[in-house]
Design a protein that fits this description.
The protein is an alpha/beta fold. The chain folds into 2 domains: about 160 residues, Alpha-Beta Complex (Spore Coat Polysaccharide Biosynthesis Protein SpsA, Chain A); about 90 residues, no CATH class. The chain contains 9 helices and 9 strands. Strands 1, 2, 3, 4, 5, 6, 7, 8 and 9 form a 9-stranded mixed beta sheet that branches. α2 links the parallel β2 and β3.
Length: about 260
């Protein structure tokens, strides 16, 4: 493997003690510094991160894209690699990145494939693979869109690398439907409500049914066995609940008042 580039690895965390050391260790295959932005972990995430060689800064959670961009004020290098705590740099990816001539690159970033897993099973259907995402980029040119959730780095002037990030997305089917500390449907409903979006009684059914049909019939869930069916159902459930909760916020002031719309974590 070639010499590690001057790349700053960035990770955002909240109670990631089970993942953080392995995540940092994998980033160190390509990065000469690792920055962790923690949003108030109550476990020993921060201590473990420091012991693994990362520098830790604290920032109350601002939303996905906003939080990832906080790290950019602390990095020492022009190139950064963003990795979530439950992701890993695979050896083939480390080799590919270390072989790049970044100082003379004509690209502002590189998109990388992601292998999404349920348990130890690599699931490829429902757009889960190749799932290209821009993760290596020059932060003076590109950065995450400042969005509350599902933020991404734009693909302008980027190149795809044929190498993978390993993503331990869900431990089991239970997490697929209700992942601890990640209430995606509530977060999504809050974002939609704050954006001024509104639903009617048909909206949850339309979105839920549409999500199932698209993922099961057109995105290969049908050919993914029980994993494909279960994933399609979970995506549909999340879509249904997101719009059902949005409708509930509109119709029931007591439910709306009980929610903290300043936080979508």
């Amino acid at each position: 493997m070639n010499k590690v580039h001057k790349i700053s690895g960035i990770i955002t965390t909240l109670n990631e003690a089970q993942h953080i050391v392995a995540c940092i260790t994998s980033l160190q295959l390509i990065c000469n510094e690792v920055i962790v932005i923690d949003s108030g972990s109550t476990d020993n995430t921060c201590e473990l991160a420091r012991s693994a060689g990362a520098t830790v800064y604290h920032q109350s959670y601002l939303g996905d894209g906003f939080q990832k961009n906080v790290a950019l004020q602390y990095v020492q290098n022009a190139w950064v690699f963003s990795l979530d705590a439950d992701e890993r740099i695979m050896p083939e990816l480390a080799t590919a990145v270390n072989a790049l001539d970044l100082e003379n690159s004509c690209y502002a970033g590189y998109a990388i494939r992601r292998r999404n897993h349920i348990g130890k099973r690599w699931v490829k259907c429902c757009n889960w693979y190749p799932d290209y995402l821009v993760r290596l980029y020059r932060h003076d040119t590109l950065r995450f869109h400042e969005m509350k959730q599902h933020a991404f780095v734009p693909v302008e002037n980027t190149k795809k690398l044929k190498a993978d990030i390993l993503h331990f997305r869900y431990k089991n089917y239970g997490e697929l439907f209700v992942k601890p500390e990640r209430n995606y449907s509530t977060r999504g409903a809050k974002v939609l409500y704050l954006q001024g979006k509104r639903a009617n009684i048909f909206t949850p059914v339309r979105h839920g049914l549409g999500a199932f049909l698209i993922n099961y019939l057109f995105r290969g869930g049908l050919f993914g066995g029980i994993d494909g069916l279960t994933l399609s159902l979970a995506i549909a459930q999340n879509s249904y609940l997101k719009y059902a909760k949005l409708l509930e916020y509109q119709r029931d002031k007591s439910v709306r008042d009980a929610e903290d719309f300043n936080s979508v974590w």
